[in-house]
């Protein structure tokens, strides 16, 4: 089992929760949101992604971690949400947003984070709140955004490269 305390302090239990060991906490220079995202790849439970300003990845259940994207942040804003495809642990979408730095963008990777690209579509200048993949097709994903006066639900059919407003 995995659990997270604030600022992406992740722990793991291998005895049903009787004891917990810390397995990840970002460096102080890699700022995480107070409630920061981490996800487990549905198709491979050993692969985890965690989002601070950098997206971190473990391929061995949290024993070791490395920063994706060559160690670079996606846009120097903390990750607010993450999703990993049900069918490919290498297909991931990340949304950025922080109350003190309102640069709200979506990024995607299809190579496990070796490189990330910014989504091409115009999206609302709102906090991305959640991301999800279709369970049978890693090209189809959904994103939701907070706020008022703008659309809130978007769909991608190309693994996060472009998005269409489906709020209606």
Fill in the keyword field for this structure.
globular; 168 residues; four-stranded antiparallel sheet; single chain; mainly beta; 0% helix
Give a description of the structure.
The protein is mainly beta. It has no helices and 15 strands. The protein has a 4-stranded antiparallel beta sheet with strand order 4-5-6-7, with no helix packed on it. A 4-stranded antiparallel beta sheet has the order 8-9-10-11, with no helix packed on it. It is globular, with a radius of gyration of 15 Å. The model has no long low-confidence stretch (mean pLDDT 95).
Write the layout of secondary structure elements.
Blueprint (H helix, E strand, L loop, with lengths): L1 E4 L3 E4 L8 E4 L13 E3 L7 E4 L3 E4 L7 E2 L11 E6 L7 E7 L2 E9 L7 E2 L9 E7 L2 E9 L7 E4 L7 E2 L3
Antiparallel strand pairs: 1-2, 2-3, 4-5, 5-6, 6-7, 8-9, 9-10, 10-11, 12-13, 13-14, 14-15
Overview in brief:
With 168 residues, the protein is mostly beta strands. It has strands at residues 2-5, 9-12, 21-24, 38-40, 48-51, 55-58, 66-67, 79-84, 92-98, 101-109, 117-118, 128-134, 137-145, 153-156, 164-165.
Individual helix count:
0
User: Whole-number radius of gyration?
Assistant: 15 Å
**What's the helix-strand series?**
EEEEEEEEEEEEEEE
On the 0 to 100 scale, the average pLDDT is 95
The share of residues in extended strands comes to 35-45%
Widest β-sheet, arrangement of strands: 4-5-6-7
Low-pLDDT stretches: none
Helix content: under 10%
Distance between the termini: 38 Å
Q: So what's the overall shape? A: globular
Structural class: mainly beta
Total E-strand runs:
15
Largest sheet geometry: 4 strands, antiparallel
